[in-house]
Amino acid sequence: MTHSSLVAIGVRWLSRRSSTVFYEFAAVSKESPDIIGWNDGLSTLIECKVSRVDFLRDGKKTVRKNPAAGMGQRRYYLCPPGIISPEEVPKKWGLLWAEKGHVTVKREARGNPDRSLIAELRFMNAMLRRAQIRIGTRPLSEWLRGENRLEAKRGTPPNRAEAPPGQ
Length: 167
Prior knowledge:
Layout: H1 3-15, E1 20-23, E2 35-39, E3 42-48, H2 52-58, H3 62-65, E4 74-79, E5 94-99, E6 102-107, H4 117-135, H5 140-143
Parallel strand pairs: 3-4, 4-5
Antiparallel strand pairs: 1-2, 2-3, 5-6
């Protein structure tokens, strides 16, 4: 399983639980989540790991050593079965296993109310700025009606920003 296929599975799973989902966006923050979504003010972060080495390396990140600096009120690791066991997942983190396009919750996230709101606001600011650059100076409502509507391609996970026609 590749990282991008694991991300696609995670985006589909989180999109059923969140109204807004972003994935694989680099941001000006200490953390660039593989997938993050929001629903009713609750943020959920998913880190995708295709290998054990990648999981062990992730534990050395500054935001893992200082959880209050990271994003996500709920945090999950998503991996193929057996890469990570529920006992190895950090306190309060959840674990998702992906197999044949299906996600199994091996351990529920316990919540992290101490996450960094500043990091999440910086991330959202970066996403809004990118949307503004892609859409240009036209009002968003103009893009959402008529010929210039941003259509999601079949098979593309929801909410991935695409450049408008002609740009």
